[in-house]
Amino acid sequence: MSDLARQNVSGLTGGESDLTRRIITMHRRDVTVAWAFVLGLWFSIIFVAIGTWSLAPTGGARTALLIGGAVVLIFNTAAILAMLRHYREDRDFMYGLDIQFLDEAREAKKGRKHG
């Protein structure tokens, strides 16, 4: 793991480069969005379970629906946690490439405007 990957993502220090700050900012935003999706999924499944509870014809049907909803929640949450772990492990490489391409696209766009 690189030195940059070992840095604490929760805070920025004065000695970090502009690239490091941009990587940390992009990573932090992606983590926030991923957790927002997880929370949204949990709230949606719970809302649907409560809203449709009386529509299930039997206790067995309710149990099956609850188990199905729980499986969806568990697997989707686990998948997003795995994705976040992968992002954290390869943060420098992935976000560094993104930033490089964004900068190149910005320069190309600027070049088209001026010439």
Report low-confidence residues grouped into runs of 5 or more.
Answer: 1-12
Into which percent range does the helicity of residues fall?
over 70%
Q: Outline, from the CA principal axes?
A: elongated
Report the average pLDDT across residues: 87
Characteristic key phrases:
115 residues; mainly alpha
In brief:
Helix content is 82%, strand content 0%. The protein is an all-alpha fold. Mean pLDDT is 87; it is low at 1-12.
Descriptive notes:
Keywords: Membrane, Transmembrane, Transmembrane helix. This is Inner membrane protein YjcH. It comes from Pseudogemmobacter humi. The protein has 115 residues and is mostly helical. Helices cover 82% and strands 0% of the residues. The chain is built from 4 helices and no strands. The chain is elongated and about 70 Å long. The N terminus is likely disordered.
Describe the secondary structure blueprint for this structure.
Blueprint: H1 3-6, H2 18-52, H3 59-89, H4 91-114
